[in-house]
Amino acid sequence: MSTPKPSTFPRNTWYVAAKAAEVQDQPLGRQICGERMVFYRAQEGRIAAVEDFCPHRGAPLSLGRVCEGKLVCGYHGLEMGCDGKTIAMPGQRVRGFPAIKSYAVEERYGFVWVWPGDREQADAALIPQLQWHDNPEWAYDGGLFHIKADYRLMIDNLMDLTHETYVHATSIGQAEIDETPCKTEVHGEAEVVTSRFMQDIPAPPFWQMALRSNGLADDVNVDRWQICRFTPPSHVMIEVGVAHAGQGGYEAADAHKVYSVVVDFITPETDGSMWYFWGMARKFNPGDAAVTEQIRAGQHKIFSEDLEMLELQQRNLADYPERQLLKLNIDAGGVQSRKIIERLIADEQAMPVLQAAVA
Amino acid sequence: MSTPKPSTFPRNTWYVAAKAAEVQDQPLGRQICGERMVFYRAQEGRIAAVEDFCPHRGAPLSLGRVCEGKLVCGYHGLEMGCDGKTIAMPGQRVRGFPAIKSYAVEERYGFVWVWPGDREQADAALIPQLQWHDNPEWAYDGGLFHIKADYRLMIDNLMDLTHETYVHATSIGQAEIDETPCKTEVHGEAEVVTSRFMQDIPAPPFWQMALRSNGLADDVNVDRWQICRFTPPSHVMIEVGVAHAGQGGYEAADAHKVYSVVVDFITPETDGSMWYFWGMARKFNPGDAAVTEQIRAGQHKIFSEDLEMLELQQRNLADYPERQLLKLNIDAGGVQSRKIIERLIADEQAMPVLQAAVA
Amino acid sequence: MSTPKPSTFPRNTWYVAAKAAEVQDQPLGRQICGERMVFYRAQEGRIAAVEDFCPHRGAPLSLGRVCEGKLVCGYHGLEMGCDGKTIAMPGQRVRGFPAIKSYAVEERYGFVWVWPGDREQADAALIPQLQWHDNPEWAYDGGLFHIKADYRLMIDNLMDLTHETYVHATSIGQAEIDETPCKTEVHGEAEVVTSRFMQDIPAPPFWQMALRSNGLADDVNVDRWQICRFTPPSHVMIEVGVAHAGQGGYEAADAHKVYSVVVDFITPETDGSMWYFWGMARKFNPGDAAVTEQIRAGQHKIFSEDLEMLELQQRNLADYPERQLLKLNIDAGGVQSRKIIERLIADEQAMPVLQAAVA
């Protein structure tokens, strides 16, 4: 009958915790949803995660090492199992040692996914499908930022691309974005889609480059689209592209268009900070590593421009918690996404028995 | 009927917020009296200041830009007017947008002055007169420090120049300062004056330089004076100078003396930090840019020596809030200045209706 | 009859505050047991310590200077005596000035020792005896770390050398440490001794070097010992050494063994941070400065490996204050040492009259 602290994020859901390449021979300590976790590779390289807290004396297990698939504490050699139970410790009987929390964790699409809540409820089938992974027609690259802001500010940011005009004026921004209204649709608790279609406009610098790299003329007008898809808890996939004007736009044949997906996984670290996994999967010229690198570097620069804005926005909102923000049509994508998040949190909080089992 | 938090600074008064040169094409974000403000140049270069908080989603307006005299939010292009009312926003009707606070602000004497309180009460005639500005007989230069200490500690510091002997021993300090008593006069709520007159003493290195640069002998004894004038809320002007001994001292003819005014504007950032605008206006050799630079560099060094002292004094006082400090005769200038500040604050707090209007 | 805040450290006891060489011409400001102190050399170079708080305006006395054995405040020249009473101040009568706290302080064995509590109870005879100081048969060197962790975590660390196997695997760790049980004895409130004796084992790299530097074979098996002696409040001396196997081990004649004392003085700065004075006194090859330096550099590296572990352990324990840690046989040294510390604190808290006198 305890009153759980109101949370800003659901827990019984999959978050991206790391790029798979971040967890190799050494354990990786990372705070996710307020919990300090350690990720490592157990037997046969299978990913595992437990609390970053040795049950012996509270040392961080992430400073230890992995020996034959067991996580060994770097302080006194306690061997931890991936179920949170101590396997062994030099000179000790460990049967009575208290277990630490272990987490449901999956490696998929080059990422490590973690379910911070009740591991009994974790279902790997709920991890979103990423069609572009391991598909030779697509190329992908991306990066990771740590941002001192509520993760929902990034959802707001991504579900409204109007800001491109101002924050990213020299790369992907253009006045036509502001001038074209966007439309937001909500599909139950499964998805929020905000889309904008611009007809017969000049291509901004990024898309000129993309057209050229695909052997298409870059000096003719295009139809441009932005389709932002939020799926809970905090994934945003943005379909973006241009087609030579008059060829059908989003529906045009591949010979007339270039397109890609901006891939955003946003993971709360604490109530006021996040891990932001960003990247781009593209379906044009996938074998050209130079284009891949050029896009990655460009995205790095573009998303860096958002960092300061979000961190200072967070400071402003923390300073004035009582102020009501405006909810305009351009904000509908973020507003609707937050409503789904709030319902998920409310559902979790309504299950006190399960909550207690998790705690 | 709410109880306003007790303040350490009056609000219905003019503070120096910036050097005019700090506000050019880009907006300047700066916290003054606990409020985050953004300063920018509106129509015809007129200075303007509003809250650094976009009414749309709380983004900092200081990360935006100025277009044709309008402050444009860097996130979604909202155009803010200098009265705190939204002018326009792409694709939106803005009539119902809540206003943000705007501030009375004036550009004068190369500084930006702000009135953080009720802008209806702001009267530009209350800005102090600075005779040396735009006067070819005078030269001025100065700088700005951010200091993590209560702004009143700097008033204490400046209203008692005894500390020169110890903190600034190699430049302007000399034993005779300690040996000569000072006198403090209070002129109602308008001014506190602490003065010290030293007769027939050797000139310290700084004043030897000043005498030489004015073509006067630097190896004879001088009469020296220090007249510290505090005016509320936190301005301290210090008349300092030396005359060849026996020529009338402070009253001597210009042919026998060199003098200047140490100009100090001290602006609270928060209860425990300040912006310190320091400088010197001198009436000798005003056209010599090398002397100007030499003095500026010397002041920079001298005032830097005070920084660490004040920040650690602040830490000590915060650690021991219950300790009573001594109030000696040398402290009278600071003590009397603080009394005026306290009365101004009490007067403001006694006006709950106006306070409410400001909030 | 006030309720003193529960403390994590006893106050009426000697702590190492500084290396003697740290206090030369300039005063040294350092926080010990939560109190800001300034250490300086008074008349004839005698060490003295008072609060780092000028009774005039709260300036830190550690920014001042020492003139003829008097501590002179760097702000207004107040002269402080080593009894906490103001001696003089330019132009002032100081008889009514409030005294600040002064501390019993002793210089011994190259360290400055301070008694943070009631100076009337301070007895220099209670400072531990260090046989190796100023003894040509011994060499000593060491260093100082600032660590953001409860000082008792370092006592735990040092009273259980099992962790050498894991944290210091390449220098002094070896599997035999884990395999050999240790024994802990408590001698009233005077001492806790945890010892481990290993028979007929290979020497780890550090001890091979020590054997060589003493002209002994380094490729034969040895008997090895570790005898950790805790004495309150927080000193840990560790006798360590190896003898050629079968020569009597710890009791072997000097011709067959090499040994030294790891010297650890652990001083609380605050409840969550410490000053850690580490070093080694050795009885082999004492005249060889290169060996001294090699050992000091090696210890620096070894103890650095403990820093991150302890600081993250501290963070974990602060995050989960309610979790019970395990108390295994290997932890007995730390557990018993903490019990002595708790009794000392309880004894102090049971003396409210004296406490009041100290405050």
Task: Describe the 3D structure.
Three copies of one chain form a homotrimer. Chain A has 359 residues and is of the alpha+beta class. The first copy, chain A, folds into two domains: 15-126, Rieske [2Fe-2S] iron-sulphur domain (Rieske Iron-sulfur Protein, 3-layer Sandwich), CATH 2.102.10; 139-345, Alpha-Beta Complex (Naphthalene 1,2-dioxygenase Alpha Subunit, Chain A, domain 1). Chain A contains seven helices and 17 strands. In chain A, strands 11-17-16-15-14-13-12 form a seven-stranded antiparallel sheet. A six-stranded antiparallel sheet of chain A has the order 1-10-9-4-3-2, with no helix packed on it. In chain A, β6 (70-72) and β7 form a beta hairpin. The longest helix of chain A is centred in the last third of the chain and has 31 residues, at 289-319. Chain A is globular. The first copy, chain A, starts with 14 loop residues before the first strand and ends with a helix. Mean pLDDT of chain A is 91; it is low at 355-359. The interface between A and B is medium-sized, with 27 and 23 residues.
